[in-house]
Design brief:
It is built from 5 helices and 7 strands. The chain has 169 residues and is α/β, with parallel strands linked by helices. Helix 2 packs across helix 3. The structure holds S-adenosylmethionine.
Length: 169
């Protein structure tokens, strides 16, 4: 009986961590040493808001919050949502972690975004960001994957910075 329960629990975990590939990238965290580089690249000030699509264990949101940057994250895996919420508890006044599919959510107003997706989703992201930003200035940092139809403003340690404004409409 104990083995059956273990197998079921293992299967549930397996599905949660691998099943997300239908909707986006599987869980692979940004390396700790690159977390600060990513936030530096976005150049957000205290009081501004960072959006993170697929926020994983919340490490980017937490690092940003330590600089006074507000954060909104979306995550499909409920185990990671719970873990990230516990990890970011101290900053719950400025961090909001939401369970769900970021493609189907209405993103709140933010000043910049961090993503670590897959190459196959970058074009979809680009189109959605153009609609979302609607001509205002908005920055996106993407780890590892580039937007083929847009020139990055900077490339640092495998991270691409993109700046959107009225020219993108
Ligand atoms: C490559 S990991 C990056 C995690 C985190 N952003 C980081 O850099 O450490 C991608 C994350 O996105 C989540 N994810 C994938 N597709 C998603 C979707 N459509 N909606 C919400 N979360 C999604 C996965 O569960 C995973 O935690």
């Amino acid at each position: 009986m104990a083995i059956q329960i273990l197998l079921i629990v293992g299967l549930v975990f397996f599905i949660m961590f691998t099943g997300v590939v239908v909707f986006g990238a599987p869980y692979l965290p940004t390396l700790k040493k690159q977390v600060d580089d990513a936030i530096d690249l976005l150049e957000l000030s205290s009081g501004q808001t960072m959006l993170e699509l697929g926020c994983g264990d919340g490490r980017l949101l937490l690092a940003a919050a330590k600089r006074g940057i507000k954060g909104v994250g979306y995550e499909l895996n409920p185990i990671l949502v719970l873990y990230a919420k516990i990890k970011c508890w101290k900053y719950k006044q400025i961090i909001s972690i939401n369970w769900g599919n970021y493609w189907s959510k209405s993103w709140p107003r933010a000043d910049g975004m961090y993503v670590f997706l897959l190459q196959s989703y970058m074009n979809k992201l680009h189109k959605k960001v153009i609609q979302y930003a609607d001509g205002r200035e908005f920055k996106v940092v993407s780890f590892a994957f580039e937007i083929k139809d847009k020139e990055p403003q900077k490339v640092v340690n495998g991270m691409f910075l993109y700046e959107y404004d009225k020219k993108d409409i």
